[in-house]
Amino acid sequence: MNIKNKIGKYQLGRTLGEGNFAKVKFAVNVETGQSYAVKILDKEKVLQYKIVNHIKREICTLKLIKHPNVVRLYEVLASKKKIYIVLEFVTGGELFDKIACDGKLEENVARKYFQQLIDAVEYCHSRGVYHRDLKPENVLLDAYGNVKVSDFGLSALPQQCRADGLLHTTCGSPNYVAPEVIADRGYDGATADLWSCGVILFVLLTGWLPFDDRNLAVLYQKIFKSDFKCPNWLSPGARNLIKRILDPNPKTRITIPEILENEWFKLGYSPAKLVEEDTSLDDVNAAFTNAEEHLLTEETGPVLMNAFQLIAMSVSLDLSGFFEEEDAAERKTRFMSMYPAKDIIEKIESTAKAMEFEVQKKNGKLRLVQTNPKSSRNGHLSIATEVFEVTPCLHVVELRKSAGDMALYRELCRKLSSNLSSDNLETSNLGFKDDDSVWRADEGVACTNIGHVVVPSVC
């Protein structure tokens, strides 16, 4: 069963995502009711892997950035064992999801997103901050459809430059990385970020990547040569801008000031309105010390989900996506079951072990790790699993792929769905209409008619 933590004034809820060194959880300020995303770091792991400076850099980077198109960092807290980074909670999902669902976008829509992306990137660069891992997955959308650039975990401040004034750390996602980054001979962070923006623009307008190949060496060759084709149905202005951005020579590549004067770019362009604020980094330094006056106490307790929290689990408050077997990004799967939580966990364990996964248990959660991958190309498959109680006889099962082979992940999800099918809700093509839900707010429960299935919120 899922365990809920409280740190300071923040009540921590479901897990939104996780990586090698951090986990991101949904949180609510109990004093104001405001929603946040909290990135949680394990101090011991940070010290073990000697990434203290890296983490401090990420935090300082975000605290320096105050832009409407960049995810905001509000404060940093710490307990004896963990560091908590309180971030803006963005509700509209990833730009990646929108492309995956809708395919290519209309030019006017793609242009609006690109304008906001360039606004955010230009602001960051003007403050000596480079992202270095720009891709649609790191571009979020708020409730109004505005861009919010996230994940500055690979960003670099000017002091990382060597005597030649160039950055020398190779990072980023292969399909979006600039050729000079791959060459590993030093590169300018601003021009490298701009290349990634060009790849994103191409994806927005076409629905596919300009550079793609299963063979990494072949992919890099295509990037080095800027070997791609713009479809003829793109407007001349869009094609010209993409070609100027995806110039393999960083010295002749178009710059952001030049993009701001580009005729295609300027159509309907409205620069972001900025509000400057003083920034203190005192809480950042305090978070990495063990001084008792700076440390908070963690409180834990069981969590139950009422109908309102159930709706909140859907990123954009659209429950049709919540009940799909796989979300658009294909990294997270949710379904509902009327089995008892104990039976659900047992079925997950038995299914995973039959597929040669190691099952790890901690704090009422399961992690499934592939023990003998047939290929190391995608790495060991790792899946985090949680079971949330809506009522004693209704549970939400959530699986999140952290890393590894997508095909095997889908196979596991299919088998789990089959094993729990007798009590599962219908999960395909489901959605609510305005008259489908009858709320009883005084009791905090609801009865919902989904298609032909009536789901009571109480047993």
UniProtKB/TrEMBL annotation:
InterPro entries: Kinase-like_dom_sf (IPR011009), NAF/FISL_domain (IPR018451), NAF_dom (IPR004041), Prot_kinase_dom (IPR000719), Protein_kinase_ATP_BS (IPR017441), Ser/Thr_kinase_AS (IPR008271). It holds the Pfam family NAF. Residues 10-265 form the Protein kinase domain. It is an enzyme of class 2 (transferase). Keywords: ATP-binding, Kinase, Manganese, Nucleotide-binding, Serine/threonine-protein kinase, Transferase. It comes from the Eukaryota. Gene3D superfamilies: Kinase associated domain 1, KA1 (3.30.310.80), Phosphorylase Kinase, domain 1 (3.30.200.20), Transferase(Phosphotransferase) domain 1 (1.10.510.10). ATP binds at K39. Belongs to the protein kinase superfamily. CAMK Ser/Thr protein kinase family. SNF1 subfamily. This is non-specific serine/threonine protein kinase. It comes from Araucaria cunninghamii. The lineage of its organism: Eukaryota, Viridiplantae, Streptophyta, Embryophyta, Tracheophyta.
